[in-house]
Q: What sequence folds into this?
């Protein structure tokens, strides 16, 4: 197995610095690996050699009888070099160095030393100064973040540990599934580019989301982004846009934030989709992991409210999504599904009297027609209709059709709309509480399609 394969799919893990004290990180790491359901061998390493959470522990990694693919190291920084040496002698292929106390506090020498040891033995090392690594396909939660993570298809790479841990919580709260959460830390060996290359090939990942403050090797990162963007969407949040942010980034991770305009242009050139904030990044990733890309440039809006239809049409035009009046024959089809005072042009306004049947039939018509490339379905809560039933009817239609083009929804209203949107998300149809968020996600999907088309894909 290669170093990164051993990191993501280890057959055995040693936690060095495993502790019986629940207030220590070395305890939490073992506890999370067990709670996550990891199915390989787990060896706690502790100088006392006492049992840790019912598992036999070993006084050193070298005392472990079997092979070790991955070492998770959580001992004070000064002890990391000797521990890593032992890992090398043991034949360990990959290491997650959780410990802080290196470059981020000016201890460059110590960081250089561990990088050299890792290189000498061919160990791929993530960190130091990380909260760990979560990888859903291996059921491996080798982090001291939350124990429950909602599995899915987004790989999240983060330069901020705290943000990564918070995101693990979001996955459960908003049911946005992740295939991986990677804490980058000081990047003494493995960098974002290595991770992108890995996820580019990873069949369990459909989109990559990155939070970065600065790049060590900008050229390499952009090359890797360009390659990955040809295969799956790469969504980037790059902070340190302003002078205040850049100075904060410099003291946080020692990153040189660089000119924001230069980054912006470079991301565009490499096909990466730059999101302005976390909520937007997850909105986009949610759509791109749940739905196929648009089948062509023409987007169709279906609504029961004129106002939200107009707002969505505005947002579409502003973000480069084409909204054209529908061909006559398609309009005639929609007219049969709405009262005489409806509007069949685009947005198609089914009016406030649109019940589940007219939504189901309209979505069916839109999904079947080859001239429609993507569909945005809007619903405004009315007293005479039931949002949950409408949501179900949309999902059923999509399922029976096979849904080969982008379909998103926005349900605007109270608690029942929330319930309807949860149902839709569960059934694989992304939903958003305001139309502009749905439009923004579809626009990002189109930008990605255009990048690929420009590259001949
Ligand atoms: N081999 C094996 N175990 C060792 C060891 C070694 N060479 N040296 C120490 N240990 C054991 C200790 O005995 C202890 O176990 P115990 O509780 O049974 O006594 C355990 O490892 C932890 O060592 P301890 O000295 O108690 O340190 P700690 O738990 O207070 O802190 C770190 C260790 C790594 C967590 C801490 O130094 C650190 O870096 N914290 C910051 C981590 C972080 O924030 N990372 C970035 C997130 S974004």
A:
């Amino acid at each position: 197995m290669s170093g990164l394969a051993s990191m993501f799919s280890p057959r055995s893990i040693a936690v060095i610095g495993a502790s019986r004290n629940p207030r220590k990180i070395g305890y939490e790491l073992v506890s999370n690996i067990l709670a996550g359901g990891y199915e390989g061998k787990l060896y706690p390493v502790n100088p006392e050699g006492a049992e840790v959470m019912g598992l036999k522990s070993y006084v050193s990694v070298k005392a472990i009888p079997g092979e070790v693919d991955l070492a998770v190291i959580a001992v004070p920084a000064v002890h990391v070099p000797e521990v890593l040496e032992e890992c090398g002698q043991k034949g360990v292929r990959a290491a997650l160095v959780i410990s802080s106390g290196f470059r981020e506090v000016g201890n460059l020498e110590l960081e250089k030393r561990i990088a050299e040891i890792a290189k000498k033995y061919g160990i791929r090392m993530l960190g130091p100064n990380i909260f760990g690594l979560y990888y859903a396909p291996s059921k491996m939660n080798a982090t001291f973040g939350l124990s429950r993570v909602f599995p899915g298809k987004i790989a999240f790479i983060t330069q901020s540990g705290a943000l990564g841990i918070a995101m693990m919580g979001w996955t459960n709260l908003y049911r946005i599934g992740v295939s991986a959460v990677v804490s980058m830390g000081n990047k003494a060996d493995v960098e974002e580019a290595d991770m992108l290359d890995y996820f580019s090939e990873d069949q369990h990942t459909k989109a990559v989301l990155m939070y970065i403050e600065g790049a060590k090797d900008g050229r390499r990162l952009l090359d890797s982004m360009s390659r990955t963007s040809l295969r799956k969407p790469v969504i980037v949040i790059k902070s340190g846009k302003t002078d205040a942010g850049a100075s904060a980034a410099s003291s946080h991770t020692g990153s040189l934030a660089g000119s924001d305009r230069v980054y912006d242009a470079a991301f565009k050139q490499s096909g990466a989709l730059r999101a302005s904030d976390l909520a937007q990044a997850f909105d986009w990733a949610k759509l791109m992991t749940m739905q196929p890309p648009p089948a062509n440039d023409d987007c169709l809006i279906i609504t029961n409210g004129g106002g939200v239809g107009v707002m969505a049409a505005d947002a579409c035009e502003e973000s480069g999504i084409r909204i054209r009046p529908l061909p006559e024959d398609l309009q005639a089809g929609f007219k049969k599904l709405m009262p005489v005072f409806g509007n069949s042009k685009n947005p198609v306004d089914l009016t406030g009297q649109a019940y589940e049947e007219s939504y189901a039939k309209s979505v069916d018509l839109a999904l079947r027609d080859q001239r429609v490339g993507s569909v945005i379905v809007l619903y405004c809560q009315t007293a005479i209709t039931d949002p949950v039933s409408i949501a179900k009817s949309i999902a059923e239609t999509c399922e029976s059709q096979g849904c080969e083009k982008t379909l998103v929804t926005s349900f605007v209203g109270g608690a029942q709309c929330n319930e309807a949107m949860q149902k839709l998300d569960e059934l694989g149809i992304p939903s958003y509480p305001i139309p502009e968020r749905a439009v923004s996600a579809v626009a990002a999907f189109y930008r990605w399609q255009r990048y690929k088309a420009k590259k001949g894909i």
In short: The chain has 16 helices and 17 strands. The chain has a mean pLDDT of 94. The domain at 149-290 is CATH 3.40.50.261 (Rossmann fold). The CA atoms of residues 18 and 24 lie 9 Å apart.
